[in-house]
Design a protein that fits this description.
heterodimer, A: alpha+beta, B: 796 residues, alpha+beta, 27% helix
Chain lengths: 161, 796
């Protein structure tokens, strides 16, 4: 079957098998390997992407279900050569080690900050609680997202950090 | 504000001229934060085929018949291979890292649920999976051996009837220490406490599962294997020995690895199958396991059933520790540890205490479960050893009605006793245990916590304070007594300074997220004076790096880090000779200023390492006997292990109504000697502490009576999320290793070793009003509830 959608702002139209998972469509068919796969059961969240602005676990979404929708992946976080503050925050605060859960974590973080620009530590922990990181122990991820929150408000007041 | 890339050239807490150590952002992060990491499953090669593995649904059965005809008829299937096919090529069995054998594909019997039975290669990953369902296997079900305690009963079926003359499920016996001397101390001691303690089977479950892409090029006769390997060089040698391919025709590449934790040390049947498939089909073949395959078939961790006994005076002087261990090794002995250490480094079970005697006797058995045993940041079984000693010391404190901190302080090995030889023969290099303990007490506000606990107890609230102190032995290891399959555990390192003064350093170890590209650049920078940003670190490719045994057991910094420092010093020595020619003075008239050689007493006469590099490669004469170029290679053989240590304090609250445990605070003071990048060290500690919460409260790979794995998905095998862990409070002391070139000790597994006993000690402390002295992990609400009712759940 044919599926047409927008991925990171670009229109894509591809022939797919009806059962193809969105995660495999993005990775294998479009070559967007920043989105990872880590379990089969929607527990780990390393496959989180956005569909119409909502974070979804792309291992439990069919590519066909993304037809006509707007998908955003980690590759779409950087805009015009400028890193998203969330990306900078993860680097500044050591919010990643092996890097495998990082894209999913950052997509959730971006969605959180869009909704709540000044989240508390507890709100951040709740937001990322559908995702697993085996390396960092989460504290530095929380700090990374707080870093982004603080530096974003600097952007809105006086230009990019 | 600077860009992220520019930030890489800065030091956050270091504004001097080029030096190595300090909090520096990671060089590997720019690719990871853009989703541009390059993991195994990201590899796409032209014509690449996909492999999937059919696994046994039962724990123990004879294979009667395998019918692959329907799978072979699938239009997208290129090959279906069974154990019988492999047996014809002599490839049905392979050696494990402990010199046992393991089936690549089962031929006679299946011996655990999830064992590899056949594989399919197809045009795409979905078709390969489809075809698995078309393979028919007839099994003659056998009784499984599930409970290790019954494995040696005479009526048990023999799992390993593939081994000639095998009539039972005995795997090995091992002992350490002096039995007679220990028994004598026990007989005359004032106080003896005995406690049965189980460290249940858990699984490292890295976020990226195991997998590979095998690509055999027929014309060149060369196999390239991209694989999730923590030890690419060791794997290459084993593949050469097993496959018969000459070693120079095998290139093993570990790309970015999504977490390892020891899960990616062994060689799994899937890797061998993919290699076979590529050899047979002449095409690249990808195999990535799914999460259930990872949890049910790859290297598990722990599974020690222990009895700990401690003898002491009534004043609390610990005299001796005696322990008996039953080790469940699963169906094949796949332990990844130095060969002469079948129980890993469990021998350090005497902990951080000055004892008169110690003895351990261990029996290992086969069961119908997946192989493995040494994984999940265990520092070769030190996790189990530290859990045993720190639990039994708390049991003694309970018995003596003594504060657990006071008891530990009374018994620590004193700074002046180092190097300290334990009663089981380990030579601890350096330690300041009391200093670390007191720092942790101060950070935690220990006395205030005890006061708060008393108040809460009076109100019926359950608050617990747990203390643990650990000493690890990491950095395997001296080649005189440590090897894996005959390969010495030394590490090579090569450093090359380019003409313009930039450098490349090639390591034999392999990062799985530890940040080698940053830390090793810093180590070299500190020695050679070139900024870390100008030093490229290469690891993971056997064609591009010198031989060495890889990253596990916290060995990278102790072994390879030493190699990196020493190779830089070797280059510096040559640079000094060249500098003497450039400045027309004798070598002894020069002094090193971290980046340049000055004439002693005349700092205006100076050449930088960059000047020297250009001279080394440039025109004109060099001092007599000096070859051009500026590079060196070494192989570092550690003279001893390094012994990091730490003091951990955990505060928990237990809900009296639901028995749910909440870790409220966790204070971790670590001493890993010289600190290269404090940010990375802190990250390593944080991750290990989280592992500890998982093991202490949530994680267990359990089996039902038929040998079905009950932890086969992340819905069943619970791993901590951000909601189950607190914000970590870390501190440190610095006691350098006296024998390590830069005084560094390993740190990657310290927290995984030290945190489980701190958490369990805290929960048991919370349950003191119920008369609880011990409860086995994982301390789930139901287990805590049972303990509160006076009947702790026996662990399985």
């Amino acid at each position: 079957m044919q599926v047409s959608l927008t991925v990171n702002g670009e229109e894509v139209s591809e022939e797919i098998e009806g059962r193809l998972l969105l995660v495999h469509f993005l990775r294998d068919q479009l070559g967007l390997t920043g989105t990872h796969w880590g379990c089969d059961t929607s527990n780990c969240g390393t496959c989180v992407v956005w569909m119409d602005g909502e974070p979804v676990k792309s291992c439990t979404v069919l590519a066909a279900m993304a037809g006509g929708r707007e998908v955003r992946t980690v590759e779409g976080l950087e805009q015009n050569g400028e890193l998203d503050p969330v990306q900078q925050g993860f680097m500044e605060c050591h919010g990643l080690q092996c890097g495998f859960c990082t894209p999913g974590m950052m997509m959730t973080a971006r969605a959180l900050l869009d909704r709540n620009p000044d989240p508390s530590e507890q709100e951040i922990r709740e937001a990322i609680s559908g995702q697993i990181c085996r390396c960092t122990g989460y504290a530095t991820i929380v700090r990374s997202i707080r870093w982004a929150a603080v530096h974003e408000s600097a952007v809105s007041i006086g230009g990019r950090p | 504000m600077t860009t992220t890339e520019e930030r890489l050239t800065e030091f956050v807490d270091n504004d001097q001229k080029p030096v190595g150590y300090g909090r520096m952002l990671r060089k590997e992060d720019p690719r990871f934060i853009r989703g541009l990491g390059h993991y195994c499953d990201d590899i796409q090669l032209p014509g690449m085929l996909h492999m999937a593995i059919l696994r046994s649904p039962v724990a123990h059965a004879r294979i009667v018949r395998v019918d692959t005809s329907a799978a072979e008829a699938h239009p997208k299937v290129k090959a279906v291979v069974t154990g019988a096919t492999l047996a014809e090529k002599g490839l049905a069995w392979m050696p494990t890292l402990s010199n046992d054998v393991q089936a690549v594909l089962a031929t006679d019997k299946v011996r655990f649920q999830g064992q590899e039975v056949a594989f399919v290669v197809a045009e795409d990953r979905y078709s390969a999976r489809d075809a698995l369902e078309l393979i028919e296997v007839e099994y003659d079900i056998l009784a499984p051996v599930v409970d290790a305690r019954r494995a040696l009963d005479p009526d048990m079926p023999v799992i390993r009837d593939d081994l000639e003359g095998k009539t039972d499920n005995h795997c090995f016996d091992w002992e350490t220490g002096d039995e007679a001397a220990t028994n004598a101390v026990f007989e005359s001691a004032d106080v003896v406490v005995s406690q049965d303690i189980v460290y249940p089977r858990v699984h490292p479950a890295p976020m990226e599962t195991c997998g590979c892409v095998a690509d055999y090029e027929r014309v060149a006769g060369k196999l390239t294997l991209w694989t999730t390997s923590q030890a690419p060089h060791a794997h290459r040698t084993v593949y050469a020995l097993v496959s018969g391919l000459p070693e120079h025709k095998i290139r093993v590449i570990s790309p970015d690895i999504g977490g390892g934790f020891g899960n990616k040390v062994p060689i799994y049947p899937g890797y061998v199958c993919a290699i076979v498939a590529s050899l047979v089909l002449g095409k690249p073949v990808k195999w990535m396991e799914d999460r259930s395959e990872n949890l049910t078939s790859t290297g598990f961790a722990r599974d020690y059933i222990m009895r700990g006994e401690i003898a002491a005076t009534k004043e609390g002087k610990i005299l001796a520790i005696r322990t008996n261990v039953l080790a469940d090794h699963g169906a094949f002995n796949g332990t990844a540890a130095p060969m002469k250490y079948p129980a890993g480094f469990f021998g350090v079970f005497t902990g951080s205490y000055d004892l008169e005697a110690a003895y351990c006797k261990m029996t290992a058995v086969y069961t119908n479960k997946a192989p493995g045993g040494v994984a999940y940041a265990c520092s070769f079984r030190i996790t189990e050893a530290v859990y045993l000693v720190e639990r039994i010391v708390d049991c003694l404190a309970y018995q003596l009605e003594m504060d657990p901190v006071e008891l530990r302080l009374k018994n620590f090995i004193k700074p002046e006793q180092f190097p300290y030889t334990t009663k089981t023969g380990w030579i601890y290099d350096s330690g300041e245990y009391e200093t670390a303990m007191r720092l942790a007490l101060e950070m935690a506000g220990y006395d205030e916590l005890r006061a708060e606990q008393m108040e809460k107890r009076a109100r019926g609230e359950l608050m617990g304070i747990g203390v643990a102190f650990f000493t690890e032995a990491v950095g395997a290891g001296p080649r005189k007594n440590m090897d894996i399959l005959g390969l010495g555990m030394a590490d090579g390192c090569e450093l090359r300074i380019h003409p313009t003064g930039k450098a490349v350093v090639r390591l034999s170890v392999m990062s799985q997220g530890q940040g080698h590209e940053t830390t090793f650049a810093q180590i070299v920078a500190e020695e050679i004076g070139i900024p870390p940003a100008d030093i490229q670190v290469v690891n993971g490719d056997t064609d591009q790096t010198p031989f060495g045994l890889g990253t596990y057991g916290s060995r990278s910094t102790p072994v390879s880090g030493a190699a990196a420092a020493l190779v830089a010093r070797k280059v510096r020595d040559k640079a000094q000779i060249i500098a003497s020619g450039m400045l027309e003075v004798s070598v002894t008239d020069l002094e090193w200023q971290k980046g340049s050689f000055n004439v002693k007493g005349d700092p205006s006469k100076s050449v930088t390492i960059q000047d020297i590099a250009m001279k080394a490669h440039g025109a004109g004469d060099l001092p007599e006997g000096v070859e051009g170029g500026l590079e060196a290679q070494i192989c570092y053989n550690p003279e001893n292990l390094t012994y990091p240590f730490g003091a951990y304090i955990c505060v928990v609250d237990v809900d009296p109504g639901t028995a749910e445990v909440k870790v409220r605070r966790f204070v971790a003071v670590d001493d890993c000697g010289t600190r290269i990048n404090p940010m990375i060290i802190e990250g390593q500690i944080h991750g290990g502490l989280t592992d500890g919460v998982g093991m202490a409260l949530m994680e267990m790979i359990a089996f039902d009576e038929d040998g079905n794995c009950l932890g086969a998905s992340l819905m069943d095998y619970l791993i901590p999320t951000a909601l189950e862990v607190p914000d970590w409070e870390t501190g440190h002391t610095v006691t350098p290793s006296p024998h390590h070139p830069i005084g560094a000790k390993g740190v990657g597994e310290s927290a995984t070793v030290g945190s489980p006993p701190a958490i369990v000690n805290a929960v048991v402390d919370a349950l003191k009003p119920f008369g609880v002295r011990h409860a086995d992990m994982p301390l789930t609400p139901s287990r805590v509830w049972d303990a509160m009712q006076g009947h702790p759940t026996p662990s399985v």
